[in-house]
Amino acid sequence: MNALGGFLRARREAITPAEVGLPTGARRRTPGLRRAELAALAGVSVEYLTRLERGRHPHPSAQVIGALADALRLSSHERVHLHRLVKAGGGTTCAGATAPRPVRPTVLALLDRLEPSPAFVTDARGDVLARTAGFRWLAAPTGLLDVERPNLARYVFGDVRARTAFPDWERVADERAAALRAAADLGDGASAVLAEELSITAGAEFGRRFASAAVLPAGTGVERWRHPEAGVLRLAYESLAVPGDEDHRLVVYLPADAATSDALSAHVMASA
C-alpha cells in the first residue's frame, strides 16, 4: 500500500456513515465506511477504489481525487495534504508548467501612471504579478495579498474570506474557473497544473465549474468588492491584453456609481 492509498483507507475507516448522511446498520465490522459506500458517494467503481487504496493505480485523475475528498468531508488542511501525496506519488502530473514571466519595465511604468486607481497585471493562470498602491488598498484587507505570489483562482476557491470579499462570489468563481479553463485549453501548462491542484483542494466547487466552462471570461464588466473601511464597492473593470509573448493582462478598476466614486476619493485618493 502506498502513502496515498493508506491515507484514503484511513480516512474511509475513520468517518462514520452518519457523517455522510448514510444509515448506520446494526451489523458492521468497522465504524467507518465500506468501500462500496465511499465509491458510490464519489462516483467511482469499487474496483477502482480498491486498486487506489492498494497502490495499484499510480496515476489517479485530479477529478477522482477531488470527488473522494468531497465524499470523505476532508478539511482544507487534509485536502492540501492529499494533493501533496498525489504529487509525491506521481499522479496528476502535467508537463509544461513554467515560472511566471516578469512584467516589462514599460508596463510597470504604465501601472505607476494609473495611480491611485486600483489596477494590476496578471498572467494566464491568474497570478498577480504587479499592482498599484490603489489595488493594494482594495485587496489587502481581503487576504488576497497575504501570500508571496497571490493567485486569483486559488484565493477565490481556497480562502474562505473570498466569499465575504466578493458579495457575488458565485459569479466571480464562474469567471475565475472559465479563465483557467481557457488558458489550460490553449496549452498553458501552469494553468493546467493549477486546475489539477484546485480539483483536489477545492473539489466540486471548482471541478464542476471548470468542466462546464463553455464561454470565455468577460473582458469588461462590474464587480462588487466588500471593503472593511469603504463598504461595498461597485467597480467597473477593463481587462486588457498586454502586447508581447508574456501573455499578461492589465486589469484596471474604475468606480461604477457615484457612491463608489466618493468612497474611492475619500480613501484611495486621500492615501495616495
In a few lines, what is going on in this structure?
It is built from 13 helices and five strands. The chain is of the alpha+beta class.
Task: Give the topology, please.
Blueprint: H1 3-14, H2 35-42, H3 46-53, H4 62-71, H5 76-89, H6 105-114, E1 119-122, E2 128-131, H7 133-139, H8 152-158, H9 162-165, H10 169-185, H11 189-201, H12 204-212, E3 220-227, E4 231-241, E5 249-255, H13 258-271
Antiparallel strand pairs: 1-2, 1-5, 3-4, 4-5
Helix pairs in contact: 2-3, 2-4, 4-11, 8-10, 10-11, 10-12, 11-12
What does this structure look like?
The chain has 272 residues and is of the alpha+beta class. The protein has helices at residues 3-14, 35-42, 46-53, 62-71, 76-89, 105-114, 133-139, 152-158, 162-165, 169-185, 189-201, 204-212, 258-271, and strands at 119-122, 128-131, 220-227, 231-241, 249-255. The protein has a five-stranded antiparallel beta sheet. A hairpin with a 3-residue loop joins strand 3 (220-227) and strand 4 (231-241).
- Count every helix, treating DSSP H or I runs of 4 or more residues as helices: 13
What is the CA-CA span between the terminal residues?
59 Å
How many strand elements? 5
Largest sheet: 5 strands, antiparallel
- Structural class, from secondary structure content? alpha+beta
Major β-sheet strand ordering: 2-1-5-4-3
Give average pLDDT, whole number.
88
Low-confidence stretches: none
Strand residues, percent? 5-15%
Shape, principal axes of CA atoms: elongated
